[in-house]
């Protein structure tokens, strides 16, 4: 398949999810290189973030000196997500590009509902109000224990979310698992506890047939 053939079709929206220390960020370049080698145009992005507004909100959202309640967190996330979707993700998909996004809606349910205890129906309502109604085409869930995740990030300066207790991430992991069980076709579980090279092999083995199917 040539680039010209692929870009006349709608692009593919791929998200990477998981708790802190799961290895999502290091996997983005691997996935991008794999897609680009096959002639696809790729956009790499993240949440919170993804644009001028999103990155400004990210600096607030992750600031360890700030205390935000669940509702404030949620409002910040959806302000940034609406801008991100309208000005970066949606246009890229319309151009036939592959969008690789580090975190999206699943993290909101895992962290703000599972971790914070915010009602899921309120999150769904806010998402609809913000115009976030299209799910990713494919989501990789990097699954590992909170204890291992904490051990991996111990050497770096923790942001506001990374400072949460193990119980917070245990609840978040439970919600990720529930969502994967409910949508097994969209959300693929990746064992993130194995060595990083094995994680990357598993990712690419899972991605290849999905690319072929999406752009067939």
Automatic annotation (TrEMBL):
Q: State the protein's name.
A: Thymidylate kinase
Q: Name one Pfam family in it.
A: Thymidylate_kin
Q: Which keywords, in A-to-Z order, does the entry hold?
A: ATP-binding, Kinase, Nucleotide biosynthesis, Nucleotide-binding, Transferase
Hey, which family's this protein in? Belongs to the thymidylate kinase family.
Per its UniProt record, what Gene3D superfamilies does this chain match?
A: P-loop containing nucleotide triphosphate hydrolases (3.40.50.300)
Q: Which GO terms describe its biological process?
A: dTDP biosynthetic process; dTTP biosynthetic process; dUDP biosynthetic process
Give the enzyme's EC designation: 2.7.4.9
Which InterPro entries does this UniProt record tie to the protein?
P-loop_NTPase, Thymidylate_kin-like_dom, Thymidylate_kin_CS, Thymidylate_kinase
Question: A GO molecular-function term, please?
Answer: ATP binding
Entry binding sites for ATP: 18-25
Reactions catalysed = dTMP + ATP = dTDP + ADP
Against PANTHER family, the record matches this protein to: THYMIDYLATE KINASE, UMP-CMP KINASE 2, MITOCHONDRIAL
Source organism (scientific name): Acidithiobacillus marinus
Q: Which residues form the Thymidylate kinase-like domain?
A: 16-200
Question: Which GO CC terms are listed, alphabetically?
Answer: cytosol
Q: Report the protein's function.
A: Phosphorylation of dTMP to form dTDP in both de novo and salvage pathways of dTTP synthesis.
